[in-house]
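for the writeup, i need someone to sanity check this before i put it in the appendix. the sequnce is what the collaborator sent (i think, or maybe the updated version? ugh). structure was predicted straight from it, no edits. if anything looks off just tell me and ill rerun, i have time this weekend
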Amino acid sequence: MNTESNKISMLKTTPFDKLRANGINQSFPKTHPPGHQTGNHSRPGLKNCWRLLCCLLAGCVSSISLASHNFTTPDRTTLAPVIPTHPSEEPIQPLPAIPKLNPAKVTLGEKLFFDPRLSANGKLSCASCHDLETNGADHQAHSRGHDDIPLAVNTPSIFNSALNPWQFWDGRAHSLKEQIDYVIENPREMANSWSVIIRRLKTRPDYVRKFGNLYADGINADNIRNAISTFERTLLTPGSRFDRWLQGDEQALDANEKKGYQLFKAYGCTACHQGANIGGNLFQKIGIFADYFQQQDKIQPADYGRFNVSGREQDRYVFRVPSLRNVAVTAPYFHDGSVNTLHEAIQLVARYQLGRTIPDDDIQDIVAFLQTLTGKYKGRLLTGRVAP
């Protein structure tokens, strides 16, 4: 077996914590949070395997010159018909069922999610940046936080975030409960403290009663986190046309949407966007084949990504790969909220992450596929303000 095949085989069979010892700098943390499972991957064509590897890995494979490889564009006329056999055979999985959790805790968590008492100025709630009536975010490049100050990065949608093993673009929180702490105490977001929040809630008889019924120790920080995160775990968006197709409804997608999915796989996109959440479960450097930040007037601290968490140079410009669930309605895109359309987002990903140009016809079909990933919340299809 040649060197390239050895590397590919190693990637498929070697635990991630051993890859670095074998000369591969991968973009996963050394350990996964408890209970995390990586998504299944379909085997790409050999002509695109190095492109897939570069999307999966934060760095390039040592001693191999990627520039010497001739990558070809998938032939639209020879793409195999897409016939779903079983979801487990696809790199993308259907969303799991909404978990059946304690309904009283869910109701309490929802009440807290919409309560501005959690913020220092009493004006912001979780729902201020995460609009559950539309797309789970707020359609802005940068949400407004405490004292109307723009936040450093784009706000991701709260929908399906319970499926992510890490929260935030830099992955600094390992759970929904930990994520709540960061938001409450961040001076640019809620700018509050647990002592103030607890004191406020204890003045409300309804909260005292509800917490007393659910928790033996009543109102405290851990129980508040537990209630909110319990509600957030129910914020899944099933019912997308693509999931229906995965589950056997052949008529759920038209020919262009199916071709778009084939192209999505053929270009190696499923190396980073796979599993039930179609991403969100690994880290990746932005700008593998070109410097994404070169055209910016000034690099902001938030642009350093996971480096701000780990302090490791190899994590500079590394971010948690975003989920593509509901991506057609969650513009603007990227950590800096700088891109307003899916067409432009695909062009930039092709340039910076794949080192290539994707023909417009292919992009149109990929966009058509991405539009099938929009799901439903409480039986209503999610919506967005910016059309792709």
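The chain has a mean pLDDT of 84. Strands lie at 283-285, 318-320, 376-377, 380-381.
thx in advance!!
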